[in-house]
Amino acid sequence: MKDLRTSFLDHIKKGLKGKPLPLRVLFWDGHEYTFDEQPLVTMHLRSAKVLSRLLMGSALDVIGEGYVEGTIGLDGRYQDILAVAEGLGDVFPAKKPKGGIFRKHHAAHSKSQDAEAVQYHYDVSNDFYKLWLDHNMVYSCGYFKTGTEDIDTAQEQKLDHVCRKLHLQPGEKLLDIGCGWGGLLTWAATHYGIQGVGVTLSEQQFAYAKEHIKREGLANRVEIRLQDYRDIPERDYFDKVSSIGMFEHVGRAKLGEYFQVINRVLREGGWVMNHGITAGQQDDEDGHHSGSDFMDKYVFPDGEIPHLWRLVWEMAGQDLEVLDVENLRPHYAQTLIHWVQRLEARKAEAVAMVGDKRYRIWAIYMAGCAYAFWRNWSALHQVLAIKQTKEALTLRPWERRYQYQEDSFHRADPDWGDL
Known about the structure:
This protein is of the alpha/beta class. Helices cover 42% and strands 17% of the residues. The chain is elongated, with a radius of gyration of 23 Å.
């Protein structure tokens, strides 16, 4: 009868079917095995229990959890580690391989449950996020014109891209749902002259954003609230609504209610920009995916990602007519690469702030998400819509030219650098 190590190695060899795997495995007892003459990744398996779990399947989840908990050590560049992990994920698959980064689990998404999930992820430490975010503290996909911009430039371009898409005008009232640390509202008030309201469930974001708005001299023009989007009292009040990187926390079953709230607060003819992660394939909404257990346990409790079709369908059901759709998938891959490189560069400070385990969670999650966007397992869509409840046409630009300051288009592949 084969021992556990032999079964593990034989299973990998058989599953690879001759494909290369640049991996060197170091076992807990000093034995080692190399699958390639020039391995790019070394994996330290520190107990036989890890082998048992890998043989049961869902390698991406097991490797992610093992790395975080210290039962698996990983040496190599993150992009090589993730490529090897994908190869092992094919050999030891979950019920559905290579799916999106979130799974559908039909969480209740009560107000208290959502607040707890948001605070788990965002209330780590404002100083921790300052280490690796841009100077505007924008924790969402940047916008690249050439792919070579630094993260500060890319995020300013994203803020301006959103403002121009929304066709913001001086004096308009803008609601930002899930306002984060207040970067968009500050930008829109300073550069576009709007009056703004931002809501967040994160206590640390709320405190930071309020102080930031005050420091920028915008307290008489921008209000920050610690408030669930369902508790926003206004009706037919806002000219424009933005929701940037927030609707991933809403839940599929709550999308109708979410867009109903947006319809309620928008004036007739008002515009909404929904910017968020979407499933890469139509059937990625359902079932269990490789890596989703790790994301649900360590990163985004109760996160649920719909496909683009569901987003558009739910918007239409609330009289929100879609005007424009843009997929920023490569932009998010590049953004995440910037973030994880910056986090790695400040590793000692990050570990001192949040501990080694939390550091490993954020590093592997951001690198893994970059890989997922790069491989088209997940997408990022900006969907622009207008509240259209009357039969008459509501005034809007005839073309998209207003969204851009120049007509040239550049495309660069994600630059992993030395990650």
